[in-house]
Amino acid sequence: MHSINENNQILHDKLTALRKEKGLTQCDIAQSLGISDKTYSKWETGENEINVSSLWALADFYQISPACFFSGTERLQR
User: Tell me: the pLDDT tens digits for 12-70?
Assistant: First the structure.
């Protein structure tokens, strides 16, 4: 089991990796979610925490299970 800090780092790394894998910018994702690009950027860098509803919105955007953000598994389907 990971500590909270480890889970946060896994989440931030996963957000960056998924975005780059899709060839998207932070601005692209922010616009899709209806948030500012600064908010999204702060999620990736860990400056701000992501609330549960935003985490679900990101999971919907990437069509993955929210659990994927905290695991080594890239593609747990919901």
Answer: 899 999 999 999 999 999 999 999 999 999 999 989 989 999 999 999 999 999 988 87
Q: How far apart are alpha carbons 26 and 39 in whole angstroms?
A: 9
78 burial via Cβ count (<10 Å: 0-12, 13-18, 19+): exposed
Q: Is the dihedral of CA 34, 35, 41, 47 positive or negative?
A: negative
- Give the sign of the dihedral formed by CA 27, CA 62, CA 57, CA 3: negative
Q: Which amino acid is at 78?
A: R
> pTM (2 decimals)?
0.80
Q: How many CB atoms lie within 10 A of CB 69?
A: 21
